[in-house]
Amino acid sequence: MKRLLNAAAAACLASLALTHGLHAEEIRTVPSSQEQVQLSFAPVVKQATPAVVNVFTRKTVTVRNPLMDDPLFRRFFGDQGRGIPRERVESSLGSGVIVGADGTIVTNNHVIEGADEITVALSDAREFEAKVQIADPRTDLAILKIDPGKEQLPTLTLADSDGVEVGDIVLAIGNPFGVGQTVTQGIVSAVARTQVGVSDYRFFIQTDAAINPGNSGGALIDLKGRLVGVNSSIYSRDGGSLGIGFAIPSAMVRSVIQAARNGGRVVRPWLGASGQPVTQDIAGGLGLDRPRGVLVNNLVPDGPATRAGIKVGDVILSVDGHPVQDEDALSFRLATHDIGGTIGLGVWRKGQELTLTAALEAPPEKPARDQRLIEGRNPFAGATVVNLSPAVAEEIGRSYGDSGVIITEVSSGAPADRIGFQVGDRILKLNDVEITSTKELADVIAAPSRAWRISIERGGREISTVLPR
């Protein structure tokens, strides 16, 4: 602590010098004490590193020669065992942060995704088998649990990520490239960075602290040793750090930890509203001083936004006083709240700014999802489908205005997989029948026909094809 105070005093001296017009040369002095020579981040690092762990995963993958799917290839070369799927074990590594003295650990979802075995190594080299409590691809966060017995493990306290400012000094702790626990230092380059990253809730703290493969899931801490974010991704051309790294803010981390403690299911509030970013032209037409907020262009009848008084054409500027620049920022602010209670929405309407109150409610599951695994001899065999509702839309990150039947899972190697169906595809028509429910899909599949005429929606585009029966 004393070293940090000395650093603060030096900073104040430099600030005073600038205020009084002194040049840097006039305040340069030789260190007058051993303490001034030894100023460092060591006390913060020593406090924080015991709570940062290494995460090792193993998973078995099936490998098959894709050429064996070609009948011509098989005709000339025969099977010769080449078509038999082979299994191999893949290993990967990442980092994690102990956030509960009972062995609760947060890491990235992409670190543990698909793993058959997860091992956590503490900073003192002890290893524990870990179990997954929550794996949330939408936030790219996962909560693990190890059993340390009666021992109380060291933890990191979560900071308020909304208090982080551009220019703040931060430290990144993790296990890059598997070389062992490593600490790098930098500053916060940007906050509320959207349109980047690997998760659906694209709202990140950007830093120039070196983050490399293996750092994923590790800690981004402030100079008080508090967790401000979980390192998640980097911008890179060759896999190495270019000084542009992204961390998931602690506000989102806190909400996922809370979900794990409340039973392990992540349920986020919804507004029942969608829109588009405000461009310069739109801002001028609406009388806004600059492009900001989300222009509402779709409302779900009787949804929270509708009941709060939101109207099509309104611009949502803030959530509980926090400005939102686009839909990513709006989604993030909603996702950091728990179900229950209310939020204040800053809204721009006809040249005036007003505040409306919306309820924090779970999205309804209407219609019921009626999940079905399609079987039999048909193009959809091996696909799991559900009825699309606001609850399902929230889970998979789709617009609330959509309805119908959507694919939520495709079994590897199944007919649906070989044809090319993907998770998130919405089935529009089958054999010229508009598909409105999973039951209707099953009925049409069972009906006789000469061919399969299929129309799906993917990424906003309609794709149609005809397959032989």
- What average pLDDT do the residues reach? 85
Strand order within the widest beta sheet: 5-4-1-2-3-7-6
CATH architectural designation of the largest domain: Beta Barrel
Given helix and strand content, the structural type is alpha+beta
CA-atom Rg in angstroms:
26 Å
Strand content: 25-35%
Plain-language structure description:
The chain is an alpha+beta fold. The chain folds into four domains: about 1-40, no CATH class; about 40-265, Thrombin, subunit H (Beta Barrel); about 275-360, PDZ domain (Pdz3 Domain); about 370-469, PDZ domain (Pdz3 Domain). About 20% of the residues lie in helices and about 35% in strands. It is built from 13 helices and 26 strands. The protein has helices spanning about 1-20, 25, 35, 40-50, 70-75, 110, 250-260, 280-285, 305-310, 325-335, 390-395, 415-420, 440-445; strands at about 50-65, 85-100, 105-110, 115-120, 125-130, 130-135, 140-145, 170-175, 180-195, 205, 220, 225-235, 245-250, 275, 295-300, 315-320, 320-325, 340-350, 350-360, 370-375, 385, 405-410, 425-430, 435, 450-460, 460-469. Strands 5-4-1-2-3-7-6 form a seven-stranded antiparallel beta sheet. Strands 20, 21, 22, 23, 24, 25 and 26 form a seven-stranded antiparallel beta sheet that branches. Strands 8-9-10-13-12-11 form a six-stranded antiparallel barrel. Residues about 1-25 have low confidence and may be disordered.
